[in-house]
Amino acid sequence: MSTPSTQPLVPAISFDNLTLGYDRHPAVHHITGDVAQGVLLAVVGSNGAGKSTLLKAMVGELKPLSGRIDLHGHRKHDIAYLPQVVEIDRSFPISVFDCVAMGLWREIGASGGLDRTGSERVNEALAAVHLSGLAGRPVGALSGGQFQRVLFARLLLQDAKVILLDEPFRAVDARTIADLIGLIERWHAEGRTVIAVLHDIELVRRYFPQTLLLAREVLAWGPTPEVLTPVNLDLSRRFNESYDESAAVCEHDEARQTA
After folding, report:
1. Are residues 50 and 19 in contact, defined by beta-carbon separation less than 8 angstroms?
2. Could you read off the pLDDT of 129-140 as tens digits, one per residue?
């Protein structure tokens, strides 16, 4: 089993023997390592590998069963989190403009109104995702790709130091993926820490320099070419197939690390 490569960089997030789960049933076991500031990191693995669980723990939605997460001084507003689209209720009657403007909530407060500068920033964010003509449309009337652009525009306004993306390209078209990848590369160039849960291995190989491969524990973590090897991907598949959903305790088999 690989461990994160040693880098002379300041950590943005650290995991110390972290185990996560639901109703005390472990879902992710014994993660230890550092996510460096400014890294562009993909989290990959089979369905049920614990990828979304890990992101929810980083944003504070899920408390560890054991171990700890160190955010190294990052406060809540320093971290922007985009959950899976399927977890977002699009039936609420809100316009595209107002949905994007929610990215300024930290600055204007729950009852504050947008001034001219705030409105201009919302319009600039909409332009950045190529939705300038849809500001007044209800979000419920958007296609999947259009709605994901709205969510990325909102992230732009949050101006966070750490950005967590859970399957940001699910059920969107190739053109939207290309445009959103451009925004992710922009964030990376600005020195922000971007962590994305992804399923498209070729997309990861092309755009993400670092990868964390999960199968309810860390199988490999480091430079993407060293992580996404046929051996590691096959190991990930075999771990997923052998997982016992009825297991009641957290088991950490050291022998499996050398498989």
Report:
1. no
2. 999 999 999 999
How buried is 225 (Cβ within 10 angstroms: 0-12 exposed, 13-18 middle, 19+ buried)? exposed
Where in the chain are the domains? Answer: 11-258
Rg (CA), the chain: 19
Buried b vs exposed e over 157-166: b needs ≥16 C-beta within 10 Å?
bbbbbbbbbb
CATH class for the region spanning 11-258: alpha beta
The residue written with tokens 């997030």 in the block is: 13
Q: Residues 207-253: pLDDT tens digits? A: 999 999 999 899 999 999 999 999 999 998 887 666 555 555 454 44
10 Å Cβ neighbour count for 172? 19
Angle at 237 between CA 232 and CA 239, to 5 degrees: 90
Pairing of strands 40-44, 193-197: parallel
Rounded (5°) CA angle 155-157-158: 65
Residue 217 neighbours by CB under 8 Å, 6+ apart: 28, 29, 30, 31, 239, 252
- As a whole number of angstroms, the distance between CA 199 and CA 44 comes to 6
Contacts 24+ apart (CB under 8 A), 95-99: 95/135, 95/136, 95/137, 95/138, 95/139, 96/126, 96/131, 96/134, 96/135, 96/136, 96/137, 96/138, 96/139, 96/142, 96/150, 97/122, 97/126, 97/135, 97/136, 99/139, 99/150, 99/154
